[in-house]
Fold these 3 entries.
Entry 1:
Amino acid sequence: MKKFIIERHIPGAGKLTQEDLQQIAKTSNAVITISGKPYIWVESFVTADKIYCIHEAENEADVREHSKCGNFPVNNIEEVVTVIGPATAGD
C-alpha cells in the first residue's frame, strides 16, 4: 500500500473536544470497515485550524472515497515517496 498525507482545513480544529475527536475516529473506523478495501488510518495531527492525516491505501481514489463517505473535508492529498529522520544521517 502507499502512504498519503491528507490536509483537512477545519476552522477551530484545535478546539475540538475529546468527544468530537472520538466521534471523528469512530466515523473513520466505520468507513474503513464498511469499505472492505485494504486501508489503514495511521494517525492524525491536529493544529489550530487543520488536521493532517496519515493514511495507507492502494491509491488516492480510495483516500478520496474514505473522505467522501465520512464527510471529511479534503484540501490536499500528497503521496509520501520516502521518509527520513535523525537516523538517516548515519551518525
Note: The CA atoms of residues 42 and 89 lie 25 Å apart.
Entry 2:
Amino acid sequence: MNRKLFGTDGIRGRANQEPMTALTALNVAMAAARLFRRGDHRHRVVIGKDTRLSGYLLEPALTAGFIAEGMDVILLGPLPTPAVAMLTKSLRADLGVVISASHNPYYDNGIKLFGPDGFKLSDELEARIENAMAADSSDGLAAGDALGRASRLDDAIGRYVEYVKSTSPNGLRLDGMKIVVDCANGAAYRVAPAILWELGAEVISLAVQPDGLNINHGCGATAPRLMQEAVVMHNADIGLALDGDADRLIMADEKGRVINGDQLMCLIAQAWSRAGKLKNNTLVATVMSNLGMERFLNGQGINLVRTPVGDRYVVEAMRRGGYNVGGEQSGHIVLGDFSTTGDALIAALQILAVLRERGAPASEACSLFRPVPQLLRNVEADGEVLEKPKIRDALAAAEKKLEGRGRLLVRKSGTEPLIRIMAECDDEKLVCALVDELSELIKSEAA
C-alpha cells in the first residue's frame, strides 16, 4: 500500500498548512484509534510534544480525535521522543504520539506514531491509517457515555530521568567532568541537564529557554557551533548537542571538534564487542554512513548492515537480525537493549562511560577512523525530477566514474521538499566535481 501523508519519520510539514492542520490531526487520531482499538479494555493513548508554538494547535486536535473514538488520552507535555516511546510501553498504552518536526525549524511540525510495543509504526500500518482517513469518519464514533477522557501525567519527566539514569553502565558517575549540553530549545531542555547533574557532572546548559519559536534556531545538533565554542570557552571535557526532540546526538571533543554519529556508533560498537555485548557482532547503519567507518569495522571484525535512510529502517533491520546497536551519521543512535528508537541521552551515557573507563580524552577515544571525503548537498526540488531522462543519465555516468572507488546516493528527502545528493571517494576533487555537476543539473531541470 502506498503512503502519501507519511514520510520516513511520520507526517511532517508547515504548521497550519496541509497536512499539518488541526483538521488533519483530528482525522489522523480518529483513523489511528479505529485501528488500535483492540479488545474490551479501556483504551489509552499517550501524547508528547516538543516546544514548538504549533504544538498548542495540534495537541488538542489529536486529543479530540482520540476522545471521540473512545480512547483515554494521557498528556505528557514537552518530552523527548524516546521518552514517549518508553512511556507508551510502560503505561500499557495502545498508542503513542509525538508532536514534533525533530530538527526542522519552528514553523514546521509533525506527527509520529508508536505502537503499544513502543516501536514506530510500519509502512503498512501507516498506509492503513491513511486508508482509514478516507473512510466515513462517523463510523465507529463512541457513544456519549463511552467518550474518552484526558488527563496529564505529572511525573512524566521524573519517570524518564530515572529510566535514562538506570541504563548507565556500572553505576556510572560523572563527578569531576565538565559537560556542555545544548538542548536546542527543544523537548529535552529540562531532562538533559537534570540527568547529567544528578550523575555528578558540572553542567553548562545551552538553549534551555524555549519560547515556541527558537527551537533548533542557531543551536542543537544541526547547528553545533554554539556547543563547540562553549566547550572551548569553559574548558569543558566534552559537549553534547541534541535536536528538537532529543532523538539525535552530536558531540564535540575537548578541543571543540565535532564528533558525528558514525564515530559515536563505532565507539559503542567497539566497546560492546570487546565486552561481548554486541549481539551477532554487528552494527546497523544507513547508506549515508561513511565508507571510512565501514573499513574500520571490517578491521575490527565487526559486521556492518546498511539500510535506507531513516532510523525506523535501522530499527526494523535490528529487530529482524537480532542486533542491538544501530544508528545514523546524523546522530540517531539506537541501543536496542534500552530503547525502541533513537535516544540521545542514553547514547551519551554509553559514550561517557567509555571515556571514563579508558581514561582518555574525547579527542583520542572518539577518533576511531579517518572519514573518506564525503560531500552532502541539499537541492530544493520535487522528487519527480529524479525520473527525468537527463537526470537518470547523469546519475548513471557519475556512478560509473565512482565504480570501485566510492559511492553515490541521490534521493528524495522523506521529511522536507529536497533532493539530497551524497558522494564519497578518496579523491576529494572528484567528489566535489560530481556533486557540483549533479546539483546544477537538478536545479535546472526542476526550474
Note: Residues 374-446 form a domain with the TATA-Binding Protein fold (CATH 3.30.310.50).
Entry 3:
Amino acid sequence: MNLEIITPDKKVFAGQATAVTFPGTDGQFQVLNQHAPLVSTLGKGSLVVETESGKNTYQVDGGVVEVLNNNVLVLAEAIA
C-alpha cells in the first residue's frame, strides 16, 4: 500500500508499506494491504511503519489518518 506521513512542516515518509500500526485515540490499531476505507484520529504514541526493508518507528503527538483505495494518508501534528 502507498503511505504518506505529513506534518505541517514537512513530508516525513512517502513510499510503500506492508503494515502500519497507529496510536488511535481509543487504542492501538493496524492497517494492512487492501484495508477497508477508514478515517480515524490519532493520539500520542508510536506509529510503526513496516516495509520490505524493515521497521521504522515515529513518535506522534496526535493527528488524523485516512485509508482509501490502498492509500494511507497520515496528517500528524508533530513527529519526533
Note: The first strand starts at residue 2 and ends at 6.
